[in-house]
Amino acid sequence: MTSRTMDGCIKCGACVRECPVLLQEGQDRFPGPRRLAVEGPRFNEELSALRSPLELCTTCARCTAACPSALPLPEALVQVRRLLYREKPRPERQENMLANIDGTLRTVLPSGPVTELPSTGDVLFFPGCIGHGRYPEGITSSLSLIRAVGGRPFAPQGWACCGSPLEKIGDEQRLARLEAHNKALFRGFDTVVTSCPGCTVQLRKRYGLDPQHIIEHIHGSGRLRRSSFDHGSPPIKVALHSPCHLARVVGPHTLEMARDLLDMVPGVDVVSTGLEDDCCGGGGGVASARPDVAERMAARKVQAAVEAGAELLLAPCPFCVINLGRTGLLNVQDLTVFLASRLLKAEGIYSPIP
Amino acid sequence: MSSSERYMPEVLIVGGGATGTGIARDLAMRGVEVLLAEAGDLSSGASGGNHGMLHSGARYAVTDPEAARECATEGEVLKRIAGFCIEDTGGLFVSLPRDDHAYLDRFLDGCRGSGVRAEEISICEALRSEPNISSDIAAAVRVPDASVDPFFLVWGMAESAREAGATVLTHTPVTSLHVKEGRIARAVLGRGERRRTVRPEVVVNASGAWCGRVAAMAGQRIDMQLDKGSMVVFNGRLVNGLVNRLRPPADGDILVPHRSSTILGTTSGPGTLEDVRATATEVEGLLRAATEVLPGLSTARTIRSYAGVRPLLNGNGRGRQASRAFTVIDHSEGGVENLLSVAGGKLTTCRLMAEKASDAVMRRLGRSGACRTMLEEISPPVIGGGSFQEEVMRRKYGAFTGTILAECIGSPLGREEACSCESVSVGELEHFAASPDVISLSDLMRRTRAGMGYCQAGLCVFRMASALDAGEPRREIERFLAERWKGISPVLRGEQLRQEAFKAHLFKVHGIDHTREG
Q: Considering CB atoms only, which of B236, B420, B423 is closest to A6?
């Protein structure tokens, strides 16, 4: 039958106006969420002509936020992907990702040294594939911050990808396999801390867990304060990116927490770019399917940060950090890396980033 | 062809539905000079107000074997020659536990007897091909039903007739037929500046529900029975192929997946020529019956309703019992030797009706020439690559897409989307608006599907009006929206209620109340 999203649209146009990919790429390349999740799926054979534009949705969920009926447009769009990709091959880089999963249970193979994680402790930390394989300093910083607020972080041996990228590109079979694998490892724990918002959302939605993003965890502990940070650091102007899956799906409170934490760090001046809420372009499989689009979207944001006078762009999401960093126009860091680097050594448990 | 020749046709065909355009195509392909005059637009009668079903014949296998046999053969012929407007989805007949089980055998026997390829399949297999239907079904039979877009079939036949040399005039009513010495000596067409007199050798009355009226102009009497059928349109494809109820034909038996929608029908009851519409009671009845087969239907989004009248010949039973077979009436016996009327029949058999009628015309003209409509394609399905917009166009216009596409894709404005429900570009609207056939927004809608989607012209009506350049755009917009509203008001609930409330808000800015008729 037709989905609630297909039937619920009254054509107000809010999603079309708000879609950042449509704004960036234009209607010819990306017709927007209404065409892809509402109008298109009403057709039969014609639908297959939407394969290529479907790859361009970052699932940023700005459309859902704007929709007066709050229709779950990204989820409906992902359903269409699932339908269209049932038998046909995917973009090359997504096929590579699937091969990695089949070989290692993770989406990426580490490109350098990885941060080793303790196998015992009292706070289950889920590192996620991107942090583990592409951004080890993000893992180190998360471990430091968890320790700084009094926890002993550990990760279960042999953890697998949370499944979020598979869900976004519509690979139900592998998704089910990974979930079964992880659920067995997580048995007995109801709190999991993650540094990647994609993992946070996935663990909440599909695993019946109560996951916390690292920002929620350290802010919620109430144990960080101005005195936790080094007063001797040089002043710096930073811009803060608002990751879509963190701010829109985990919840807008996470961004307030992020600002709160930045406020504690002496010498930090957070500049406003006006584009904080815009998607970086990396999510929803776009970074792997269409890196050119992901980079164009990122460049717009980074440029705005440069123009606002930022010396550093911070994002509480390793995935966004990597995509925004692609442009090479500005230094980009995960918020946890920045916070950990400004922690007073006196906290005693901080281990410097390699 | 010069304009003086144009109005000296050998044959005048009255009516631009499936029958009339079919005959025009057939005769033109046999080399006959043909003029078709249609009072309104193409498909404005029963040809545009039907279920969009290409019958395998199964529906009539028990009650009307002759019609079943014709459908079985002709359905396959149309799939071959007019593939561009047909989706060969196949169909299922399913029965529920409370249905008469003995009917299955009669049905299968009937199909066998009339050459309908019907195959009983397991419940499992039926549910695999139609996962949304009730899992309670007791029996399932697969048949080669298909979905056809009648607007495009008729338009395609008219274009094909023109290519073969026929003149097709829409919005040109026949105002009088003058009988002198036992034959129609002249016919007057059109009004005002467009008034013309023609002196055809033969007149073919193919005016469907209006057959009686046209014949009466020549002093002839045809006893027509107008039988109304109502339908409900749902958003999106709720079934993969046609789903029919396996029982003696009754209301709400058939679901047809049609382009971006699903059409449920039909009812049967006395009809009239004017103000044909579905009522809320009919809609309720249809929904109640069909929900038994497709349980999700009760919460699906209804977009609109519509109705058509079946032009049946009296004397062959009433309503559903009336034969769907067609008749070519020779009015010589009634004293007019050059008038033929074609009455009854079905969309599926339109080509055969045209062939038989054209054979009769040829005999009357004393000319020879064999029918070629079976051999030459109107247009095959055209598929292949390109954007969604191009793909939608190809599946609408088939081989006719080429020129339209060139105009639309050529310029950025032409490519711009005017109706997003149905993915209709500004270029398409402009292409068809430039045709002399198109004088109203409804005409434009029938050729492009703009305004047929789930918002029911809520957003495209202004783009349509600016493409059309109608004399008084506001009045034309109001007229068009009133016609839409006629179909929407009986299904006004759930999502469509929210849609219409939003439209009311939008249109209010322009001082338009789209919920008012006339």
A: B236
Is B502's CB within 8 Å of A11's CB? yes
Q: Is B380 on the interface with A (CB under 8 A)?
A: no
Contact B383 A6 (CB under 8 A): no
pLDDT in tens, B146-184: 999 999 999 999 999 999 999 999 999 999 999 999 999
A2 lies within 8 A of chain B by CB: yes
Structural domain harbouring B32: 3-46+151-222+324-365
The reply to whether B296 and B341 lie within a common domain is no
| Three-state SS annotation for B188-243 | EECCHHHCEEECCCEEEECCHHHHHHHHHHCCCCCCEEEEEEEEEEEECCCCCCEE
B76 lies in some domain = no
What's at B59, amino acid-wise?
A: R
Structure tokens at B40: 């309104």
The answer, for A32 touching chain B at a CB cutoff of 8 Å, is no
Confidence (pTM): 0.93
Q: Which of A4, A5, A10 to mutate to test the interface with B (most CBs of B within 10 A)?
A: A10
CA distance B110 to chain A (A): 32
Distance from CA of B144 to the nearest CA of A (A): 18
Query: CA B408 to CA B405: how far, in whole Å?
Result: 5
CATH of the domain at A185: 3.40.50
pLDDT digits (tens, 9 = 90+) for B329-361: 999 999 999 999 999 889 999 999 999 999 999
Q: What is the pLDDT of residues A200-222, one digit of tens each?
A: 999 999 998 889 999 999 999 99
Q: What range defines the domain where residue A17 resides? A: 4-84
Average pLDDT over residues A318-344: 96
* Inter-chain residue contact A44 with B87, CB threshold 8 Å: yes
Here the CATH number for the domain that contains residue B179 is: 3.50.50.60
Q: Is B302 on the interface with A (CB under 8 A)?
A: no
pLDDT digits 0-9 by tens, A143-170: 999 999 999 999 999 999 999 999 988 8
Chain B residue numbers with beta carbons less than 8 Å from the beta carbon of A22 are: none
Amino acid present at B236: G
- Judged by a CB distance cut-off of 8 A, whether residue B279 touches chain A is no
Same domain, B207 and B230: no
What separation in angstroms does the CA of A10 have from each of A15, A19, B424, B455, B456?
A: 11, 17, 18, 7, 10
Report the candidate in B48, B7, B11 with the shortest Cα–Cα distance to residue B29. B11
Quote the ipTM score.
0.92
